[in-house]
Amino acid sequence: MVKPRYGERTLTLEDIEAMSLGAWILGTGGGGSPYVNLLNTRQLYKAGRRVRLMDPGMLADEALVAVVSTQGAPIVGQERLANPEISARPLRLMEEFLGRKFDAVMPIEVGGGNGLLPLMIAALSGLPAVDADAMGRAYPEAQMTSFSVANLQCFPLAMADIRGNEILIKRAEDWTWMERISRKICTELGSTATTCKAPRTGAEVKAHGVLYTASKAIDLGKAILAARASHSDPVAAIAEECGGKQMFAGKITDIERRTTEGFLRGRARLAGLDGDRGHEFALDFQNEYTVGSRDGQPVVMSPDLICVVDSVTGDGVATESIRYGQRVSVLALPAPEIFRTPRGQELVGPRAFGFDFDYQSVFEG
């Protein structure tokens, strides 16, 4: 049983600004940029709308929760900008199919723009946003969620795009098939689509969600802002706030990036600076950073969070925006416990991304 921590609170714009900063880091390079969703939410606030953040412990067991996301390659979001009305369309489509209204909305992942997406929909719809997600970060595929680890039902799923296309997948064999089917559709829609995933009950969210992640992102953002205001090290503030470790500091010397089958894949290479001078680091990614290698040896890997941040400001550095010459710090943050289980590692460990080695956490031993 989940005991409520705070009930429900109305977020200020300062909270949302801080969450944008924190979610960008927790996105581990993916989840899409939060900037446009932040701008949209600011406009909704100017129009008198507000976001109510709901403690997951306040959810009734029978409550119906919409799980929303933008699916696709993050780099496409630099040209095809988010729109609140379009983002809410899959939710409305799902309500029509189910024949009932949702009681709340939550993100599939707290990372990046997807972390702010339910806030934007909440401000537009009046629904409360649940302080939880299903990843505790960002992952690229539908089966890489805490709900999949728990083997909950993966369907139905609703999708929409800017052209007025609306798609409902009534049934899929399993989570992997749902990923394959929806990814093919997403690719045809231009490698980006807004979605409403399989609805979850309040009981399912409380039992199998990753809880209080919106609050975590807000607190992280505020810690970075406080570090900047006091002229202290924001990278150290991130590690302290999240119990993380700094793995490397360096300059980007090379970047390979390609968009294939609705994913952004590639590798970034760094040359060490300061205490890491004379060493090299490589970051492999599939939308998100998946494995970090020092001098050719893997040292940090999914499901631990690999967070790349600007070494001066602490801003998150995404896979679609990382560029030659940037000075960055690589941090490892602990993974949610559900993904450290054998089933969790099967879904999101290094082998799930095509690597031929098992998960070794930097937080063990």
TrEMBL record:
Return the InterPro entries for the record: S-Me-THD-like_C, S-Me-THD_C_sf, S-Me-THD_N, S-Me-THD_N_sf
- Note the superkingdom of the native organism: Bacteria
Q: Which residues form the S-Me-THD N-terminal domain?
A: 14-170
- Gene3D superfamilies given for it? CV3147-like, CV3147-like domain
Every S-Me-THD-like C-terminal domain range: 174-362
| Stored Pfam families | S-Me-THD_C, S-Me-THD_N
* Protein's name according to its UniProt entry: DUF917 domain-containing protein
